[in-house]
């Protein structure tokens, strides 16, 4: 039994990772500032050690990493528009905190640190699908911060021999993704609008495409990346390899929910990427990753969860 630190473990992806680790019989410590995470996300996961604190404080990072075997660094302020309106706060969470976790992990001698990178690093490079050899072209502070984080990891591997791996996520969705902020992931916002009978908003013409990835695929990818031998310093996409436009996505969701809606179209958001789709061959080669749940199945599971949560909150 190993001890895993899941940073941001009370958040959306972090809580799914914690849940799966506990299911596998591992020991889990979570550190979370509760700025965007919620204790309730872990309420159903028994035996998790919880440390409330902000990793932009290096003492918190040292306390969190003490005695840990593996670090799954998920803590971040994960929003493009939020980083555009407040780059300093997101820089603190996305870069300063990452550096603190790296230093603490190096000092504690952890076996491996796996970092949540982002597809936003590719920016508006025209080639599709995006592969890891491509140049990066960040379009927002968030994209740049996530890219700096992964470069810091690679540097720590070279400079100090710390074993690090970056998994670049592509638009992850699923149960527990919080729709309560205008900065929330688009699928959670579409679902809450459709379930509440409000009109969903599309920024731009809705022709922009994304490789929407159901969270179970990411959990599987991260845990594979944590244990595959001989990949220190590597970075790889974790996604499904498909893409769908926002207009098509919304039509599919209306179909699954058996509702009709009028869409509100608004001006494109600053920093927005037009098309995003992953080449997943490197993850397949390095860690044996194949997506387990496709978009439609993922949407069905997510819709079922939101309906259940809505009934429970009444
Ligand atoms: C970006 C990253 C993703 C990262 C995420 C963190 C890219 C390609 N992807 O996602 O890897 O995890 O940031 O936040 O850069 N939209 C609407 N209506 C809404 C909300 C959003 O039309 O109500 C649009 C956005 O303008 C965007 C798309 O939906 O075109 C997806 O937005 P969002 O879910 O916020 O994620 P990205 O910004 O694509």
Written overview of the protein:
The chain is an alpha/beta fold and 314 residues long. The chain has a domain at 3-171 and 213-240 and 278-292: Rossmann fold (3-Layer(aba) Sandwich). It contains ten helices and 13 strands. The protein has a seven-stranded parallel β-sheet, with helices on both faces. Strands 7-10 form a two-stranded parallel sheet. Helix 1 packs across helix 7 (215-227), helix 4 runs parallel beside helix 5 (141-160) and helix 8 (246-257) crosses helix 10 (295-313). The longest helix is centred in the N-terminal third of the chain and has 22 residues, at 87-108. The protein is globular and about 55 Å long. The mean pLDDT is 96. It binds uridine-diphosphate-N-acetylglucosamine.
Poorly predicted runs are: none
Mean pLDDT, all residues: 96
End-to-end distance, in Å?
40 Å
The number of helical segments is 10
Give the biggest sheet: 7 strands, parallel
DSSP strand content: 15-25%
> Going by CATH, what is the homologous superfamily of the domain at 3-171 and 213-240 and 278-292?
NAD(P)-binding Rossmann-like Domain
State the order of secondary-structure elements, H for helix, E for strand.
EHEEHEHHEHEEHEEEHEEHEHH
Dominant shape: globular
């Amino acid at each position: 039994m190993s001890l895993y630190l899941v940073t941001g473990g009370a958040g959306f992806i972090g809580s799914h990772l914690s849940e799966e680790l506990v299911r596998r019989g591992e020991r889990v410590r979570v550190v979370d500032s509760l700025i965007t995470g919620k204790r309730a996300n872990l309420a159903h996961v028994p035996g998790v050690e919880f440390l409330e604190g902000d990793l932009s404080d290096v003492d918190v990072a040292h306390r969190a990493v003490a005695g840990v075997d593996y670090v799954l660094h998920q803590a971040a302020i994960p929003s493009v528009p939020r980083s555009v309106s407040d780059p300093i706060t997101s820089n603190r969470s996305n870069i300063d905190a990452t550096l603190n976790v790296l230093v603490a992990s190096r000092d504690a001698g952890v076996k491996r640190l796996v970092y949540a990178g982002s597809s936003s690093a590719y920016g508006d490079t025209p080639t599709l699908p995006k592969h890891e050899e491509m140049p990066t072209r960040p379009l927002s502070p968030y994209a740049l911060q996530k890219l700096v984080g992964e470069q810091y990891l690679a540097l720590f591997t070279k400079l100090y021999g710390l074993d690090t791996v970056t998994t670049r996520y592509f638009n992850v969705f699923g149960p527990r993704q919080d729709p309560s902020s205008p900065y929330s992931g688009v699928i959670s916002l579409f679902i809450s609008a459709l379930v509440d009978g409000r009109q969903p908003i599309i920024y731009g013409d809705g022709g922009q495409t994304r490789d929407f990835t159901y969270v179970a695929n990411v959990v599987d990818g991260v845990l594979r990346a944590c244990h595959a031998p001989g990949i220190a310093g590597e970075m790889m996409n974790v996604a499904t390899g498909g893409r769908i436009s926002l207009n098509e996505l919304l039509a599919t969701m209306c179909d699954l929910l058996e509702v009709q809606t009028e869409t509100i179209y608004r001006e494109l958001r600053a920093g927005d990427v037009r098309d995003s789709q992953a080449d997943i061959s490197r993850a397949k080669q390095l860690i044996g990753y194949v997506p387990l749940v496709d978009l439609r199945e993922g949407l069905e599971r997510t819709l079922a969860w939101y309906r259940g949560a809505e009934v429970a909150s009444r």
